[in-house]
Amino acid sequence: MTKLYSLFGGTTTDTDVKSVEVNQIVQMEGYSYSRYVVYKITHNDFGYHYHLINLRSHDFHQSEIIKPLSQKFGIGMYYDDKNIEFMTEEEVAKLYAKAQAKRVDEMEQQRAEEKRREEVRVVGREWLRNNLPADAKAIIVGRLKQDESDSQTDYFASSTLSNVILGFSKHTRDIFSEMRKHASNFEGTAYLAEYNEDYEHREKYSMGAGYYLGESKYRGWIIEKEPIYNRERTIEEFAYTAGSPDGIHIKLNKSGKASNNTNLNESEQQPTAQIQSDNLQFEIVDYSEKAIALFGDTKPIKDLLSAMGGKFNPRLAYKETKKAGWIFSKTKREELEGVLNLNNNNK
Question: Phi/psi of residue 74, each to 5°?
Fold first, then answer.
């Protein structure tokens, strides 16, 4: 006799006792509330196993425990013991055919996607072998995080939507000033180029997220430093990122090779642009290689600036001091100047 113990109710289920029959309708309770049909039942040393098909999504599923709905306790698979439902063999056969076709289609899509990803990795491996500096000890990486937390269940997690290579380093020390220098290489992380103590996260402890620069480890762009312990392993790890169309955002030296230094020379800065009206005054500054900064009377139009993709920072460098302003990608300059002129003309 095989028994499985419930984690919550203290009840036991004898998996050597068959609870439902083939073609019977069962349902998930406490989670998705989906309905399934039992298309096959197998048995081994661990008891009965019920093979199911989701009636809505046509996905295959399996369960070892299916209990009467009258004994419902928590999340689980149940059958309505007061109103037992069955499908005909013909209906189940048609449903099984649809589920099989969906599985085959998904497998073909997975193979095609893996082929595509490998083609990207081939390009990335070649680029890294040619451009990863011999003296590089670490890679500076930008990661776009997506929040997948559920506050109702106290579940906190995130996933990474995208990675970009921002630069290389000759050492493995975690230094935020170094991360900020590389932040300006990419539009998504440009606003992290200026000092903001709240963006510096030191979580090198058990269950911590390590050292990273950004607003939150759960959402938005963050910058991290990945040490290179094994060159070939690192190349393989970052091959897909390096081969992606928008995966590399680093400064190249005069020979066209990747550089370990992403500092901007003051001589590379372009003149500022000033926009004035009777009431408001703005100043647009080429802030870094790929970013501009907007200073001035921005409070009345802060919602507009945010909608345009601007990032507000209360401590931007401004004429050897700190001043509140907005960071934009350089690609936004013409649009920004047009909007500010239009805004001023309407005053």
Answer: 80, -170
SS3 168: strand
Report if pTM > 0.70.
no
For 13-71, what is each residue's pLDDT tens digit? 788 899 999 999 999 987 778 999 999 999 998 899 999 999 999 999 999 999 999 98
- DSSP strands (E only) in the chain: 3-5, 12-14, 25-29, 35-44, 47-54, 60-63, 67-68, 76-79, 138-147, 158-169, 200-203, 210-214, 220-227, 273-276, 281-286, 291-296, 311-318, 321-329
DSSP annotation of 227 = E
Residue pair 13/77 in contact (Cβ under 8 Å)? The answer is: no
Cα–Cα distance, 129 to 297 (Å, whole number) = 48
Backbone φ and ψ of 337, nearest 5°: -60, -40
The CATH fold assigned to 3-87 is SH3 type barrels. (2.30.30)
Q: Which among 280, 283, 326 has a CA at the least distance from the CA of 304?
A: 326
Task: Give the separation between CA 183 and CA 200, rounded to whole angstroms.
Answer: 13
Which tokens sit at 86? 């069955």
Enumerate the domain spans of the chain. Answer: 3-87, 125-243, 266-345
Burial per residue of 105-122, b for 16 or more beta-carbon CB atoms within 10 angstroms, e otherwise: eeeeeeeeeeeeeeebbe
pLDDT digits (tens, 9 = 90+) for 1-11: 566 655 555 56
